[in-house]
Amino acid sequence: QVQLVESGGGLVQAGDSLRLSCAASGRTFSYYAMGWFRQAPGKEREFVAGITWNSAYKYVTYYADSVKGRFTISRDNAKNTVYLQMNSLKPEDTAVYYCAATPNYGPSRSPANFGTWGQGTQVTVSS
Q1: For the segment 52-82, what is each residue's pLDDT rounded down to a tens digit?
Q2: What are phi and psi of 77, to 5 degrees?
Q3: How many whole angstroms separate alpha carbon 44 and alpha carbon 89?
Q4: Cα gap 82→97, rounded to integer Å
């Protein structure tokens, strides 16, 4: 089991960039597929980006259409950390961002398939 702690959120203007980090505890971090989700006030939690393995044991990434080309998920297993680089931010990206872990290689976009969650970090994009 891993525990997750997000950081890097803040208040930025439209067009700016932010990098979120998710630090994981535990020696088995590299065995988990990871995802980033977000939840805006009054809305359901939605998938943003994920990183998992393909059949050749290569990492693959996948994104929500709304962030494709603007956001990049990556991981550094030596640092037990997963990142979300967010560029060209828009006001509609405003939300609490959560990282999540699953031992299932998926790929999955459903929050129900991720069993471990961080506490979230607020991202606010002003217009």
Answers
A1: 988 888 899 999 999 999 999 999 999 999 9
A2: -65, -30
A3: 20
A4: 13
